[in-house]
Structure formats: C-alpha cells, structure tokens
C-alpha cells in the first residue's frame, strides 16, 4: 500500500505489530512486547517509558523483555524496521494514500477523505516516526533509520505523483523529485498542526490542507 498521504500510519500500521495466530511462543511474545512498547512510546513518549512499563503492559516479567531486547532503544529500532518494511511492502503492492485518491473519479474529495483518515490516526496518538526523530537528535543510529524511512516515503510519493501524471489527473509540469519532497513535507507539517488543533478546528484545517495540495497537484 503506497501511503504518502498518511505518513507511516495507515489505519493498520497505527495499531503497531500484532501477534499473529499460529506463531511459535517466542515469536508471539516478542511481537506482544513490540505492540506494548509502541502503545507506551505513543502515549508516554520514549523517555517516559521504562522496560518495567513494557513488561507490565505486555503482562510478562522484566526478564522476559531483556531476553528479547537489550534495552528500549533496541525495541524502538525494531519498531522502526517494522514500519519501514511495511512501507516498502505496501508500496510494491499499490493502493492507499494518494493512490486511493487517484482511483476515485473525484480526486479532490477523495484526497480530503484520505487526509481525514490520516488526521484521525494522528490525533489518537503521535507518529512513531516523530517520536523516533526526537530520539535521533541524540542517537545517530536512530537518526539514520529515520532518514531511510523518510527516503522510502518520498520515493513512494514520487511513484504516486508519476502515476497521477500518467493518468492525466495530476499536473505534468511539476518536477517529480521536487514535488514528492514538497508534498510530503506539506502533509507532515499539516498533519502535525491538525493533531494539535482543537476539535472544532479540525475540519477547517483538513480542508485547508486538501485545498493546498489540490491547487499544487491537480491538472487544469
């Protein structure tokens, strides 16, 4: 699923890793720990979460957490790899985000609907990538993973804009590389602003963001 319009947070990925049925016990425990940590990082922040917190949320002993992960930084890195792998896989399979809007007869209305879905996710909990970027200011390895994810997101956006141009729905005169970076930045900033806005202002902010994108992307 190509998902530039919704950052790294499609409705499914926003739930974090979920233990799958039929997996070996150790694998299921590890995914349970990842899911618990994702919830805690989103609600308490990385610095506000301890290994003990993860253990309690996952209903396991602290020793079990350390059996699977060296520290909470290792958990964050694995969560980021999970997000990046999901983004790459979804990009290859297509659909979602801008692609969903392009499949609609009314791109303008569809893009607003996609942004609304993204805003709902962001308002429920902060982006894992935003949390990781904050950690990355002090941790070069985390920063490098975040940069790799950002590059994947921009590449996904580039593919979607190129598709829109081939379909004749998006402007053919925009430079793909420049447009993909610009649109992704506009969306990131816009969703952050919407997440911080009072409930009464959300609809207006979504409309403003959608209009800005449409005025830049839509073919005459």
Number of helices: 10
Assign the CATH class of the domain at 72-217.
Mainly Alpha
Per DSSP E runs of 2 or more residues, the count of β-strands stands at: 0
Distance between the termini: 27 Å
Q: Report the average pLDDT across residues.
A: 84
Question: What ranges have pLDDT less than 50 throughout 5 or more consecutive residues?
Answer: 1-15, 18-22
What this model shows, in words?
This protein has 220 residues and is mainly α. It has a domain at 72-217: Tetracycline Repressor, domain 2. It is 70% helix and 0% strand. It contains 10 helices and no strands. It has helices at residues 25-44, 51-58, 62-68, 72-93, 97-103, 107-124, 128-136, 140-166, 176-196, 202-217. Helix 1 crosses helix 2, helix 5 packs antiparallel against helix 6 (107-124) and helix 7 packs across helix 8 (140-166). The longest helix is centred in the last third of the chain and has 27 residues, at 140-166. Mean pLDDT is 84; it is low at 1-15 and 18-22.
């Amino acid at each position: 699923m190509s998902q530039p319009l919704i950052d790294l947070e499609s409705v499914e990925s926003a739930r974090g890793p979920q233990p799958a049925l039929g997996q070996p016990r150790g694998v299921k425990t590890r995914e349970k720990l990842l899911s618990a940590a994702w919830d805690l990082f989103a609600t308490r922040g990385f610095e506000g979460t301890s290994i003990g917190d993860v253990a309690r949320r996952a209903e396991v002993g602290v020793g079990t957490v350390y059996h699977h992960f060296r520290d909470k930084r290792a958990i964050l890195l694995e969560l980021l790899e999970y997000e990046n792998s999901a983004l790459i896989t979804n990009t290859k399979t297509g659909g979602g985000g801008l692609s969903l809007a392009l499949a609609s007869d009314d791109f303008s209305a569809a893009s607003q609907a996609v942004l609304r879905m993204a805003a709902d996710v962001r308002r429920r909990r902060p982006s894992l990538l935003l949390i990781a970027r904050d950690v990355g200011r002090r941790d070069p390895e985390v920063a490098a993973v975040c940069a790799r994810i950002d590059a994947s997101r921009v590449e996904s956006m580039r593919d979607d804009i190129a598709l829109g141009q081939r379909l004749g729905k998006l402007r053919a005169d925009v430079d793909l590389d420049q447009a993909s970076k610009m649109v992704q930045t506009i969306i990131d900033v816009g969703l952050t602003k919407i997440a911080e806005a009072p409930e009464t202002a959300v609809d207006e902010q979504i409309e403003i963001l959608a209009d800005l994108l449409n005025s830049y992307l839509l073919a005459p």
